[in-house]
Design brief:
The complex is a heterodimer. Chain A is of the alpha/beta class. Chain A has 9 helices and 12 strands. Classes of the chains: A alpha/beta, B mainly alpha.
C-alpha cells in the first residue's frame, strides 16, 4: 500500500474543528496519517483525543474543515475500519466466552438469529468462524478465548477486543486508550502486539494514549493535542521542549530518563475539564 | 385428602397410568399447554434478562400484573387483559427512565423501579379490598393457579408468546451484541437504546404470561431460575439458551404434575423444581472447580 508519497492518506484532517456544548474542543487541526503507519494521538486528559478519533470515525461531526478516511468522508469506510472504544470492562460474572465476543465483531449487527449448526450448512458461516479463529491466533489469545470473558485478566481482555476489531480485516485500526488501566508488563506486550499487527498485516494504526512511553519505540508519527489544537509529525520532532513550548505558549520541558523514557514536565491542566467529560459522554 | 377426591386415584408408581390420569381432564391438558407456552417464552426472554442484569425490572413487570389483573376484574374485564396491559405499560414506563447506554445510571434506576413496584403492589391490595374484601383467587393471583384455564386463554397466551418470540428472533443477535458490548455495538450502528426499549416490552409480555401460571410473586421460577442455571452450566450462548428452554419445560411439567397429585399451590412446586436445578448446577460447578482447564480449551 502506498508510501508517504501517495496522494490520499489513510486519515487526513484539514483545518478541522469540533464544537461541543457551545465550546470549541479544538480547531485548525491538520493531521495526515499515511497508509501502514503507526500513529499515536497524545496529550493530557480532557483535551479531546477521543473526540479526534470519533471525528475520524464519523461519530462526531466537524464544525469546520474536513476529514477523509481511506479516501472517503468520515464514517463511510464501514468494514475497512476497526474500532476499539475507550476501556470497557466486562462484569466478572458475565458467562459469555471470549470467542463469542470476538465473533460479534464479525456479524454482531446483523438482524436475526444465527442458526444452530449453520457452520455445517453455509460456507459463509464457516468462513466467518475461520476468520474469528485467525484473529484470535493473531493476537495470541487461543489459550484463553474459550473462557468466560469476565474471568480473564485485563491484558487478555484487551487482546480479545483487539481481535474483535481485527476480525473483518480492516485497513485502519482505531484504538482509544487500549493500554489504559493495564499493568506495565501487559502495556508493553499489548503495545508490541499492536505494532506487530501494523507491520505484518499492513494495517494503519491510530492509537490514543496519554502516556507515550510504552509505544514510543514503534511510532512513525505523533499527533499531540493541547491548547485547543494539534501538532503532528515524527515523534522526535514533536515531543521536544521547543515544539511543546510553542504549542502550549508556556515553558514545557521534555526530559529523557536513563532508560529512554520521555517525561513531559510543566504541562498545564486543560481548563473546563468537567464539561469536556460530559460532552464526551453525551456524544458517545 | 381433598386432592384425592379431585383427582380420583392419586399418584401411583406406574408412570404411564399417572400420565393417562393427568391427561384425562381438559383442565389439566389446558394447564400443560399453557405451562409449555409460558415456559418457552419465559426461558427465551429470561435468558436475555439475566444476561442484561435486568432481573429487578423483570420482577417489577410481573408484580404490576397483580394490580393489573385485580383492577381488570374489579372493572369487569377479563383478568388476562389486566395482566398484559399492566406489564406492558410498566415496561414502557421503565423504558422511559433516563439511562445512559453504558448502564451507569442503573443504581438510581433500580431505586425508581423499586418505588414503582411497591406502589403497584399497594394498588393491588386496594383493588382486592375494593372488590369486596374477598377476591376469589387472590392466592391464585399472587402464588399461581392452574385450574380453570380456558381454551381461549391458551390461545391468547399462544398468540402473545408467538408474537414476542418472533420479534425476539428478529433482534436476537444485535440484542446480544448490545447486551455484552454496548459501546462497540453502538459504534457499529446497532440501535442500542431502541433495542433496550423493545426488549423491555417483550419482557413485559413474558412476565404477564408467567404471572398467570406461577402467580405474580413467583415469576422468577420460570424467568430467572432456568437461565441462571443454564448460564452456570455453560458459557456457550447457543447451548445455554437451549438448556434454558429445556429446563423451563421440565420445571413446569414436573411442577404441574406435582400440583395435580397434591393439595398445594402450583407456584410452590414450579419454584421448588427450578430452585433444585439451580442448586444442583451451582454445587456441580463448585465441585468441578471454576477455572476449568483453560489451557486445553480450543476456540470455535
Amino acid at each position: 500500500m502506498g508510501g508517504p508519497g501517495r496522494l490520499d492518506a489513510a486519515v487526513r484532517f484539514e483545518h478541522a474543528a469540533v464544537r461541543m456544548a457551545g465550546r470549541t474542543v479544538w480547531s485548525d487541526v491538520n493531521l495526515m496519517v499515511d497508509y501502514g503507519q503507526f500513529t499515536a494521538v497524545l496529550g493530557p486528559n480532557g483535551v479531546g483525543k477521543s473526540t479526534l478519533v470519533k471525528a475520524a470515525l464519523g461519530l462526531v461531526g466537524l464544525s469546520a474543515g474536513s476529514v477523509t478516511v481511506l479516501g472517503r468522508p468520515a464514517g463511510q469506510a464501514g468494514k475497512e475500519v476497526g474500532y476499539l472504544p475507550q476501556r470497557r470492562s466486562f462484569d466478572a460474572g458475565l458467562r459469555v466466552r471470549g470467542v463469542d465476543i470476538v465473533g460479534l465483531g464479525c456479524d454482531g449487527e446483523r438482524w436475526g438469529v444465527p442458526l444452530p449448526w449453520g457452520e455445517r450448512l453455509f460456507p459463509a458461516r464457516r468462513a466467518a468462524r475461520d476468520r474469528v479463529r485467525e484473529a484470535i491466533n493473531l493476537v495470541g489469545a487461543a489459550a484463553f478465548a474459550s473462557r468466560p470473558i469476565g474471568q480473564v485478566s485485563g491484558g487478555e481482555q484487551q487482546r480479545l477486543l483487539i481481535a474483535q476489531a481485527l476480525v473483518r480485516k480492516p485497513r485502519l485500526l482505531v484504538l482509544d486508550e487500549p493500554l489504559d488501566s493495564l499493568d506495565l508488563p501487559s502495556q508493553a506486550s499489548v503495545a508490541a502486539l499492536i505494532a506487530r499487527i501494523c507491520r505484518e498485516q499492513n494495517v494503519t494504526v491510530m492509537l490514543v494514549a496519554h502516556d507515550v512511553n510504552p509505544i514510543l519505540p514503534y511510532l512513525d508519527c505523533v499527533a499531540y493535542i493541547a491548547a485547543g489544537t494539534a501538532v503532528c509529525g515524527p515523534p522526535e520532532s514533536v515531543i521536544r521542549s521547543d515544539t511543546l513550548t510553542a504549542l502550549y505558549r508556556t515553558p514545557i520541558e521534555v526530559l529523557r530518563a536513563s532508560d529512554g523514557r520521555l517525561v513531559v514536565v510543566g504541562e498545564p491542566e486543560p481548563p473546563a475539564r468537567h464539561t469536556d467529560r460530559h460532552a464526551d459522554a453525551a456524544a458517545r | 385428602m381433598s386432592g384425592a377426591t379431585l383427582t380420583g386415584t392419586g399418584l401411583s408408581w406406574d408412570i404411564a397410568a399417572d400420565l393417562r390420569q393427568l391427561l384425562q381432564f381438559p383442565f389439566m391438558v389446558n394447564a400443560l399447554r399453557a405451562g409449555t407456552i409460558v415456559a418457552v417464552a419465559a426461558g427465551a426472554l429470561g435468558w436475555f434478562m439475566v444476561l442484561r442484569r435486568q432481573s429487578f425490572a423483570g420482577h417489577t413487570l410481573a408484580i404490576v400484573s397483580f394490580p393489573g389483573a385485580a383492577g381488570a376484574i374489579l372493572a369487569g374485564f377479563s383478568a388476562i387483559i389486566g395482566y398484559f396491559a399492566a406489564s406492558v405499560g410498566a415496561a414502557l414506563v421503565i423504558a422511559a427512565l433516563p439511562r445512559s447506554i453504558g448502564g451507569r445510571a442503573r443504581s438510581s434506576e433500580s431505586a425508581i423501579i423499586g418505588t414503582i413496584q411497591a406502589f403497584a403492589l399497594a394498588c393491588g391490595a386496594l383493588f382486592v379490598s375494593l372488590y369486596g374484601g374477598f377476591l376469589n383467587g387472590l392466592t391464585g393471583l399472587l402464588f399461581g393457579s392452574f385450574l380453570g384455564i380456558s381454551d381461549s386463554q391458551v390461545l391468547a397466551l399462544l398468540s402473545v408468546a408467538a408474537a414476542a418470540l418472533a420479534v425476539l428472533a428478529l433482534i436476537a443477535r444485535p440484542l446480544f451484541f448490545a447486551t455484552v458490548d454496548p459501546d462497540v455495538a453502538a459504534a457499529r450502528g446497532v440501535p442500542v437504546r431502541l433495542l433496550g426499549v423493545v426488549f423491555l416490552i417483550l419482557l413485559g409480555c413474558a412476565a404477564a404470561e408467567v404471572s398467570q401460571i406461577t402467580g405474580a410473586l413467583l415469576v422468577f421460577a420460570l424467568l430467572v431460575m432456568p437461565p441462571a442455571t443454564a448460564q452456570q452450566i455453560t458459557a456457550r450462548p447457543m447451548v445455554s439458551f437451549a438448556l434454558t428452554i429445556g429446563l423451563g419445560l421440565i420445571t413446569v411439567w414436573l411442577g404441574l404434575a406435582a400440583a395435580y397429585f397434591s393439595v398445594y399451590p402450583v407456584g410452590f412446586f414450579v419454584t421448588t423444581f427450578g430452585f433444585a436445578w439451580y442448586v444442583l448446577a451451582a454445587a456441580l460447578r463448585a465441585f468441578l472447580g471454576t477455572g476449568r482447564h483453560p489451557a486445553a480449551a480450543v476456540p470455535g
